Amino acid sequence: MKSLEPSASSMVDHEPESLIRRKPVRLAIYAGLALFAGFMIIMPLVAKLRDPNFEKHIAEHRVMVGMSKEQVLQAWGGPQTINTSFTKDGIRQEEWIFEDWEGAAIVKHRYLYFEEGMLIGGWFQGSGERLPTQSPSNPHIPRQTG
User: Which tens digits make up the pLDDT trace of 62-94?
Assistant: First the structure.
């Protein structure tokens, strides 16, 4: 005869599965990350296809990765400083520094990086006050001999 009481194994409490461990939730997260990564890769390619010679970018004074140095010169003009270096493999790298003066003591910097004449990246440094150089509090004064 069967007992009507539940067995010991069925009495064990099972904790509910956490939300993040549920398969549909994980799939939704993975799909969202894949869409985001795809968007980040595809959008620059779409912009390049819409303006293959960067003519629109140049007319709007914008630069984009993939431009040549000549195209950047057309869009932004010449930089104030160019730093040139070579990798151990002999690849020419250039850093172009543009200064945008907002006042007598406030300047913004824009940096562009080139490899073998092709723009590979850049960044913008926000407004910052350029302070005059301070002389040391106890300057070294050479002694006169004689």
Answer: 898 889 999 999 999 999 999 999 999 999 999
Output the CA torsion 49→52→54→57 (10° steps).
Answer: -20
Please report the DSSP string for 22-57 in residue order.
SHHHHHHHHHHHHHHHHHHHHHHHHHHHHSTT-HHH
- 63 close to 119: Cβ distance less than 8 angstroms: yes
Residue extents of the structural domains in the chain: 19-50, 59-129
| 118 DSSP β-pair partners | 68, 115
Contact (Cβ atoms closer than 8 angstroms) between residue 93 and residue 114: yes
Adjacency order of strands within the sheet including 81-86: 81-86, 92-101, 106-115, 118-129
pTM: 0.55
Residue type present at position 104: A
Q: Between residues 137 and 78, which one has the greater pLDDT?
A: 78
Q: What does the pLDDT average to over 36-55? A: 77
Structurally, at CATH architecture level, domain 59-129 sits in: 2-Layer Sandwich (3.30)
Contact status, residue 72 vs residue 59, Cβ threshold 8 Å: no
Which tokens go with 115? 């490899």
Residues near 74 by beta carbon (within 8 Å), at least 6 away in sequence:
58
